[in-house]
Amino acid sequence: MTIIVTGSAGFIGSCYVRQHVGSSDEPVISLDALTYAGHLSTLLPVMDKPSHTFVHGNIGDKGLVSKLLAEHKPRAILNFAAESHVDRSILGPEEFIQTNVLGTFRLLECAREYWQGLEGEAKANFRFLHVSTDEVYGTLGKDDAPFAEDNKYEPNSPYSASKAASDHLVRAWHHTYGLPVLTTNCSNNYGPYHFPEKLIPLVIMNALNGKPLPIYGDGQQIRDWLYVEDHTRAIRRVLEGGRLGETYNIGGWNEKANLDIVNTICSILDDLQPKADGSSYASQITFVKDRPGHDRRYAIDARKIERELGWKPEETFETGIRKTVEWYLTNQQWATQVTEKGYREWLEKQYG
Known about the structure:
By secondary structure, this protein is an alpha/beta fold.
């Protein structure tokens, strides 16, 4: 038995691979294009494991994907591969369409051709698991109920629109061709190995380097925060027991305003690595112009996955965020290395 994991050198995909290899002898073929946010260093703990094989390539390369399927005969494909940053999608949406829409389409076609050639138990047991986001549902008002699996799609950014399109393709390939698919929609992830363009790692690294901590608008945008290892544990449960064609929302039950997140990080840093002058890292907070179409609130109703599959998050936000800050304090060299190419220029372009 073998699984193929796409987007394996990214934040969430690499966490899944490390977790899977650490708890199972089942071979993993991990595929990643190694774009700016994909780094082999995220897979370093498993690179030498006999059950893990890394392949450098793109999900849109049908020849490569078909070859991998024919050679390794996996029981499942887990698709983590995606362009995933809203700010970058606003500046340059075409890459998001190429990877998230066309890439998913080509991956689905390869999976369909492979699955249709299987027989017996191998065909019955095959799964295509597609990892998506809560941003496809749009935005919530202050008193609205959290997103459930039957919420209508109302994406508001090029990123969320491209992910919504990929979700629809996965659904269509199930209903039209019978491909055995599963879809997960998660809330905001955080944890170790997160590329420092996203809020939490950006704030940690900027704070440590004495730089401004940029906050969009009034900082009252609310997100549901999910520790990445909880997320990948949930995906494993969906792969094991999820009902075919179903969507499972995965959330942390941790709604927090962005400004509160930043103040929490500053407080932890004040405790773990106080500044020499005795001031708080919170003094570095800087409010910047809000981004276009910024969704006000996301929240996930994760009762379905708990009810059907027995999953719920193990980490509270308080335990998860402290683990995250501690990891970045110990691994500042990693964050420096992965942001060497073009990162400073992107920050200046984005935040001024």
